Amino acid sequence: MMSLEILILVTLLIVTIWNIWQFFNILRRKAPHLFHLGDIESVVVLSDIHILDSIDERPNLIRLLSKIKPSIMIIAGDLFEREHRRMDRNSLRGILLRTLKSISWIREIIYITSLTSHDPILHTDVICMEMPGDVTTRITVLKGGLVHFRSNNTDFYVLHGDFLCRNGAYAGLINLLATTLFRRKLFLESLGKKFLKLEENSWLIMGHTHMVGIDAKRRLINCGCWKSYWRAKATGTLVHIYKGTPNLIHVSI
Ligand SMILES: [Mn+2]
Does the domain made of 32-250 have the CATH classification 3.30.300? Predict the structure, then answer.
């Protein structure tokens, strides 16, 4: 039988290896790819939609988007639920056109894929395509990475969040512990802002944890999510940035 000492040692080893794996990018001080979008007046940022086949699965989201009428929308990861497999340009185009058909009136869609699960695995950093419809929608798919844009002279950065901590449930648990034990909301987001060396007056918008939140003082936002899981209920939230001011908009699901 295994002695208690060995059991404790093995447990500690597993916990250590797990945490090294989760925070590997932070530990090796790796910087994410940075993509610049330039100046934008009005943009919607959302994440963690977790679609199976089509955005039609989220009618409240479509209604909300048609009310806001954004010309640019940024999807900050986890657009899909189970498409985490290697995909060439054509298959990616096929599933995106099918998935986003109902919102083909949006002129520009930026899609940051999550790297650890759910989203397609791309062979290249950037894939551009066009979606025909009433207007032609330009879709830019970015393999992971950090997106930067300016709105009314304010800097905004968008990251899915798996770059900081791979597993979404674990990232959520860390934020939950930080909130309940230390009353530190959006902990992973604040860690991200420090790790990415972002200026204090710039905003960081993330997804991944499924825990919605906005902190105007620390300039941190989490978009929340559109699917209920065992660990968190769907928040039905998105961020609308208009002339440099972000607003967290909520609909009941
Ligand atoms: Mn997610």
Answer: no
Residue 1 has a pLDDT of 61
| Gap from CA of 247 to ligand 1 centroid (Å) | 21
- Per domain, the residue ranges of the chain are 1-30, 32-250
Separation of 125 CA from ligand 1 center, angstroms? 21
**Helix, strand, coil shares, percent, the chain, to 5:** 30, 30, 40
Biggest CA-to-CA distance, the chain: 70
Task: Report CA(8)–ligand 1 centroid distance (Å).
Answer: 32
pLDDT for 144 equals 92
CA of 208 to the centre of ligand 1 (A): 5
Q: What is the pLDDT of residues 193-215, one digit of tens each?
A: 999 999 999 999 999 999 999 99
pLDDT in the model for residue 253:
73
The answer to whether the CB of 119 falls within 8 A of the CB of 83 is: yes
- Predicted model pTM: 0.94
Dist. CA 75 → ligand 1 center (Å):
12
The rounded distance, in Å, linking the Cα atoms of 41 and 43 is 7
Residue-level pLDDT at 151:
97
